[in-house]
Design brief:
- The strands form 2 sheets. A 5-stranded antiparallel sheet has the order 4-3-7-6-5, with helices on both faces. Strands 1-2 form a two-stranded antiparallel ribbon.
- Helix 3 (about 35-50) packs across helix 5, helix 4 (about 55-60) crosses helix 5 (about 65-80) and helix 6 (about 95-125) runs antiparallel to helix 10.
- It has helices at about 1-10, 15, 35-50, 55-60, 65-80, 95-125, 170-175, 180-190, 205-215, 260-280; strands spanning about 85, 90-95, 130-135, 140-145, 220, 230-235, 245-250.
- It is elongated, with a radius of gyration of 26 Å.
- Helix content is about 45%, strand content about 15%.
- A hairpin with a 6-residue loop joins strand 5 and strand 6 (about 230-235).
- It is of the alpha+beta class and about 290 residues long.
- The protein starts with a helix and ends in a 13-residue tail after the last helix.
- The chain folds into 2 domains: about 1-95, Arc Repressor Mutant, subunit A (Orthogonal Bundle), CATH 1.10.10; about 100-280, GAF domain (Beta-Lactamase).
């Protein structure tokens, strides 16, 4: 009886839940993983737990790897900046890339939280859809979205914007202030994909458009990402003046003219400047009273 009780306690409830009505156990589907990635992450976690630098042999033993495999993984991590190596001792330590990732994650998390009051203000003032976006690597990522308060509103497929920095107001508001090599890197990653007949399709067109963004202080997506949708964007800067994201207002083509378009442009610039102020930017380009 004691043995039966022990066996009963050892039964995995999750396995029981996998049984179908005939009593057969359904195989649990586990996500496929890449062994080399897991090994590299193991090495980083070991370095993070270490009291100081670690020699290759000790790292290999801790990660249950042969020395050659461990060395190749470390060489990649060192090349990418996620690990470092002391020339004299040849020992390894966490690289500056880890700090950069951590800082970026913290900044991105704080960006949404800090920007939200101003995004709501923009949404309330213009009544139009509002987006907050950042450039992660070479991909445009939407961090926050508030829908229009008007009956006729625009929809958006934010998942398709990853490779649409050249075709969106949020993307162009960021690209305009990047060094040309960085612009080239972003475009090389996703290309100049055409989303509509109005999408910018050449580097020369894009560079001219970005020049206008810098001159005007705002970007414009004139049905370049979605037919029937016009968007206005502006860059958000941190305390050092670096662009860390962008904000946009989106509206149907039918409302994108006259006084309303002017109002959206002014208030999008104002929103970006107010968010920049919250990040300590000393010289916001545009702060105005709401109209």
């Amino acid at each position: 009886m004691a043995t039966d009780a022990k066996q009963s306690r050892d039964i995995d409830p999750a396995a029981t839940a996998q049984q179908d009505v005939q009593g057969d156990v359904l195989p649990e589907k586990l996500p496929r993983t890449i062994q080399s990635v897991e090994r590299a992450l193991d090495i980083l976690e070991i370095l993070a737990d270490a009291d100081g630098e670690m020699p290759l042999n000790e790292l290999a033993t801790s990660a249950s790897l042969n020395t050659s495999t461990c060395h190749h993984l470390l060489a990649t991590l060192v090349k990418r900046g996620y690990a470092g190596q002391t020339p004299r001792t040849r020992s390894y330590f966490l690289g500056p890339g880890i700090t950069d990732l951590s800082d970026s994650r913290l900044r991105q998390f704080n960006l949404s939280e800090i920007a939200m009051p101003e995004l709501r203000r923009l949404n309330d003032t213009t009544l139009e859809s509002v987006h907050l976006a950042v450039l992660q690597g070479a991909s445009l990522v939407t961090f926050a979205k508030l829908d229009s308060k008007l009956p006729i509103r625009v929809g958006s497929d934010d998942g398709m914007k990853a490779d649409a920095a050249h075709a969106t107001a949020t993307g162009k508001a960021i690209l305009a202030w990047l060094p040309e090599p960085e612009i080239a890197r972003v475009i090389a990653h996703g290309g100049l994909k055409r989303f509509t007949d109005k999408t910018i399709s050449t580097i020369s067109e894009l560079m001219e458009d970005l020049r206008l963004v810098r001159r005007n202080g705002y970007s414009l997506d004139n049905e370049e990402f979605q037919i029937g949708v016009v968007c206005v964007g502006a860059a958000i800067r941190d305390h050092a003046g670096a662009v860390i994201g962008s904000v946009s207002g989106s509206m149907p083509r039918m409302r994108a003219d006259g006084d309303h378009l002017v109002k959206v442009k002014r208030n999008v610039q104002d929103c970006a400047a107010r968010i920049s102020l919250r990040f300590g930017n000393p010289k916001p380009e545009f702060v105005q009273a709401e109209t």
